[in-house]
Structure prediction request, 673 residues.
Amino acid sequence: MMDVLEAVFSVTFLAMVIRQMTPLLLATLGGLISDLSGALNVALEGMMLISALTAVLVSVHYPWYVAVLAAMTAGSALGLLMAFFHLRMRADIILVGFAVNIVATGGTVFALSLATGGDKGTSINLVSKAVPAVNLPFLKGVPGIGDLLFRLLSGHSLLTWFAFVAVFGLWFFLYRMRGGLWLRAVGEYPAAPAAAGIKVDVVRMWALVASGAFTGLAGAQLAMFNYVGFTRDMTAGRGFIALGAVLLGARHPIGALLAALLFGVFDALSFVIATRAQNFPAELIQAIPFVVTIIALILFSWRAQRAKALRGA
Amino acid sequence: MTTMTGKPDRLGTFAREAGRAIGALLIALVVALLIIIATSADPMNAFSQLLTAPLTSKRTIGYWMDDVAKLTLTGLAFSLVFQARQFSMGVQGQVYVGGLFAALVALSPAGATPLAIPLCLIAGMVGGAAYGFLPGYAKAKFGANEIVSSLMLNYIAIKVVNWITRAHLAPPNSGQLMSPPFPPEAVFPALVANTRLDLGIVVALVMTVVVWFILYRTRWGLKLRLVGDNPTFAEYAGIRANAVMIAAMTAAGAVGGLLGAVFVQGRAYGKIAENFDGNLAFEGILIAIVAKNRPLAVPLVALAYGYLRQGAQLMGNRTDVPNEMISVVQALVILLVASSFTVPGRKALGRIFKRRGAVQ
Prediction:
C-alpha cells in the first residue's frame, strides 16, 4: 500500500498520467466536435480501433508521419461514411455509430489476420514504427526544478504536444471563429442557422469528418506510442470512456482536458497498482476507469440538473 | 382506415419491411462474396460453406438452433428498450450478471434439486433486472446519459464476473478460467439427443410471446409504446414517462439476465466460464433493428441471422476465410435497414432522376 502511495506522489506518475491521457484526450476532442454539432458519436471506439490498425499496417512500409496521416484519413473516412448514412440516408446516428463499432471489432481482426498471414491476436510479427518522442534536454538547465521539469515534460509523444495545443486551438475555433459559431448553432438549434442560410447538414458532415480525424490521431497515438503494435480490441473501451468524458467536460474543450486528465490519473493508477500490488485482482484494476466514469457522469449530471432547476429552466 | 383495411395494410407493411430486410441482406451478401473472392484461395468453397454449412449435420443444426435461441433473447431485450426510445446498450452486462446469479444458484445446494432449472432462471432474471434498473434510474433521477452509463456497466460486469469466476468459482489453484460443471439437474435437457438443441429455444419462444403480450395486450405496454413514440404527449396524457422508462429498462434487463442463465445452463456450457457471451449480446441490436422492434418478428430474424452467423463460424473453421468477415455483413445490414434505403429498382431510379430535391 505504501508502495502504491509512494509511486503515486512522484513525477514519474505525472508523466505516466500525461502519456495515458493523450489518446483519450484526442478522442474526447473528436467526440466533442460531433456532439456540439448535434450528433452523438458513439463510434469513437470503432474509429480509434480501425485507425490504430491502419497506423500500424501503414507504418510497416512507410515513415511514421505517413502512418499518422493514414490513421487520420481512416478516421475521417469513417466520419464521412457516418455522415452519409446519417444525413443523406436518414439513419439514426446511434445505430450508424454502432454499425461502425461492429465492423471495427470484427474487421480489424479480419484485416490483421490477412496482414499477418493468420495471426488473429497481435501484430507482433510486423515491424511497425513509433511516433517520435520530443526530448527536451535543455530543461535540465533550469535552476532548481530543472530535473523535475525534464522528467515531467520530456520524452512525450509529438502527438501529446499536438493534443494540448489542439485543446486551445479548438477553443479558439469554437468561441472565436465564425465556423465554430455555426457548429455550435447547428447543434443547439438547427432551425436558426438554417434560416440564416447555413447548410446544417454540411456543417454536421464536416463535424463528423473532423471528429474522425481527431479520433484517428487517438488511434495512432495508442498503437504507435503507448503501445507499438496492434492487439485485438486494444482500445478496450477507451472510446466509450471518451464519450463519457465529452459529457463530463460540460461539452467544452477545457472541460474535455480536465475529464481526460481525471481518467489519465485513474488509468495510470491502475498501472501502478498492477505493478506494485500484485495480489490485487487484475480484473478489478481494469474496472477502475469504468467505475470512475460512471460515478463522475452521475455526479456531473446531477449537478447540471440541479443548476438547471435553480435557474428555473 | 386502419380498422377497415387493417389486415391487408398489415400484410403490405410486413411485405415491404421483409423486402427491405431481404434486399439489405442480399446487398450485404454480395459484398461478402466480393471480400471472399479478394482474400480466399478457394472462394467458391468458402462462399458455399458460408451458405450451406449449418445444414450439413444434426450437430451443426443444433449449433444453429442454439444461436437462434440466444439471438432471440438478446433481440427481445433490445426491442424492449428501443420501443421505449431508450438507447441503453446494457444487455451484455445483464447477460454477465444474470449468468453469474444463475451459476451461483446452480453451484449451491439448490442446484442439485429438481427445482434447479426454474430457480436458476429466476435468479438470472433478478440479477439482470437489477442491472438493467441502474442506468434507467441514473437517467431518470440524475439525467445521466443511458448510453454511456450502460456501456460502462457492461465493462464493469464483464471484469467483475470474470474475476469471480476465475478467483472464486474455478477450482482453487487449478488455473482454470471456468467453474466446475453444474449438477445435471441444473443443466438444460437436450430436446434432440447429442445436439445443442435444448430447453433454451423453448425459453426463448415463451419469452417472445410474453414480451409480445406485455407490449401489445397490456395497459403498461401501451404506455411504454406511447412514451417511445412521443414522450411529451405521453406526459400530457398523464403517463409518468420516467417511471415507464425505468420499468422498460428493468424488464429488458430481466430478459438480458435470462439470456445469461440460458448461456451458462445450456448444453454448450453447463458451467460459467470467463467471457462466456462471445460478444453475442451486442448482435441483438441487429436483430431488433431488422425486426423493427416487433417481438413476434424477432425469432424469425434470429432464425435467418443465426444461420448466417453459424455459416460464418463454420466457414472460419473449415476454410481460410476468418469468420470475423461476417462483421462487414452485420454492419451493412444495420446501416441499410436503419437508413431510408429502399429495395433497389423503381424507387432507386426515381431517386436518380429526381436527384437532390427529394432528399430532406
User: Anything to note?
Assistant: Confidence is low (pLDDT under 50) at residues 1-6, 356-360 of chain B. Chain B touches chain A at residues 39, 87, 89, 138, 141-145, 147-149, 151-153, 155-156, 159-160, 162-163, 166-167, 279, 282, 285-286, 289, 322, 324-328, 330-332, 334-335, 338-341, 359-360 (CB under 8 Å).
